């Protein structure tokens, strides 16, 4: 039986709130280039709020956000810097804090249709190589498409010989009602969980979608894992504070509005439900800040 591990919250909006350089298309990568000390401050704020796993600010260090030229010239340097500031924040904490290496969608969040199998390794390899010696575990997050997820897992297995814990987090279709929980590609959560169990992940989570739709996905995941006699894979969730996102969402067009109803207390209600369904890894995504994490830490 696992106890609850509190993850961190969203990075981008917290950077903006603290006055870090922040605009599209670079998004959270801009602070990595121009103000890494503010990134470290955000990590420390989450640790102070109760996070015991913080995530490297490497999510936007892909060509989709920083452009092909900057990626070619600076990806290794910037990814190493993202790991450095996270590690420093973790080591300055009073309690043990682990650093998760963020592996993001390579071609844009929510856009399974933009995936290019033949280019994926070219983008992912330098990121994985830069993180491999500097993080405690892997977090392949906001995954929309099983083909990309499986390709990333195989690549990490090849590059990182240390067998670190590997967590995968899927983003769920929340722009319209579905007959069962589905990824944004249309693939079912049932398919995704079975595939992840088959390749030996240590955690399956759901992130960057509305909290209202996550509980059903966790329950379904629990059922699939039970049927497969898999009792060592942890389940988790970290929702965002966005309204439902359309299928043609374009992450670089501007900043999405945030919901005003997802206060720390109301977010906690959803998190408690996830816990009841069996989730043991709980945090927040875009728009969920240190004050939300503090509520989770105090009550979970």
What report would you give on this structure?
With about 300 residues, the chain is an alpha/beta fold. Helix content is about 45%, strand content about 15%. The protein has eleven helices and eight strands. The chain has helices at about 10-15, 30-35, 35-50, 65, 70-90, 115-130, 145-160, 190-200, 215-225, 265-275, 290-300; strands at about 5, 55, 100-105, 135-145, 165-170, 205, 235-240, 280-285. It has an eight-stranded parallel sheet with strand order 1-8-7-6-5-4-3-2. Helix 8 links the parallel strand 5 and strand 6.
Question: What is the CA-CA span between the terminal residues?
Answer: 15 Å
Q: Tell me the Rg in angstroms.
A: 17 Å
Main sheet overview? 8 strands, parallel
**Structural class from helices and strands?**
alpha/beta
Helical content, roughly?
40-55%
Q: Descriptors for this entry?
A:
300 residues, alpha/beta, 8-stranded parallel sheet, 11 helices, 13% strand
List the helices and strands and how they pair.
Elements: E1 5-6, H1 12-17, H2 29-34, H3 36-49, E2 53-55, H4 63-66, H5 68-91, E3 98-103, H6 117-132, E4 137-143, H7 146-159, E5 166-170, H8 189-198, E6 203-207, H9 214-227, E7 234-239, H10 264-277, E8 281-284, H11 290-299
Parallel strand pairs: 1-8, 2-3, 3-4, 4-5, 5-6, 6-7, 7-8
Helix pairs in contact: 3-5, 3-11, 5-6, 6-7, 8-9, 9-10, 10-11
């Amino acid at each position: 039986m696992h106890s609850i591990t509190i993850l961190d919250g969203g990075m981008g909006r917290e950077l903006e709130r603290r006055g870090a350089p922040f605009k599209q298309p670079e998004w959270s990568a801009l602070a990595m280039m121009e103000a890494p000390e503010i990134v470290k401050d955000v990590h420390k704020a989450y640790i102070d709020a109760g996070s015991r796993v913080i995530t490297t600010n490497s999510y936007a260090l892909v060509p989709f956000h920083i452009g092909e030229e900057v990626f070619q010239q600076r990806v290794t340097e910037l990814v190493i810097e993202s790991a450095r500031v996270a590690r420093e924040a973790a080591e300055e904490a009073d309690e043990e804090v682990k650093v998760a290496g963020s592996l993001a969608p390579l071609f844009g969040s929510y856009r399974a249709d933009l995936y290019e199998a033949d280019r994926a390794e070219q983008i992912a390899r330098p990121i994985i190589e830069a993180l491999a010696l500097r993080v405690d575990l892997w977090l392949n997050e906001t995954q929309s498409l099983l083909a990309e997820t499986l390709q990333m897992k195989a690549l990490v297995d090849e590059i990182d010989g240390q067998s670190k814990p590997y967590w995968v987090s899927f983003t769920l279709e929340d722009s319209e009602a579905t007959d069962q929980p589905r990824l944004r590609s249309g693939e079912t959560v049932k398919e995704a969980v079975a595939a992840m169990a088959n390749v030996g992940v240590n955690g399956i989570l759901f992130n960057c979608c509305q909290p209202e739709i996550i509980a059903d996905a966790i329950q379904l995941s629990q059922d699939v894992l039970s049927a497969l006699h898999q009792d060592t894979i942890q389940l988790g969730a970290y929702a965002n504070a966005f309204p439902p996102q359309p299928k043609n969402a374009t992450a670089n067009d501007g900043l999405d509005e945030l919901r005003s109803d997802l206060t720390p207390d109301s977010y906690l209600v959803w998190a408690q439900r996830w816990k009841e369904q069996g989730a043991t890894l709980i945090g927040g995504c875009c728009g969920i800040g240190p004050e939300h994490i503090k509520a989770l830490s105090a009550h979970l």
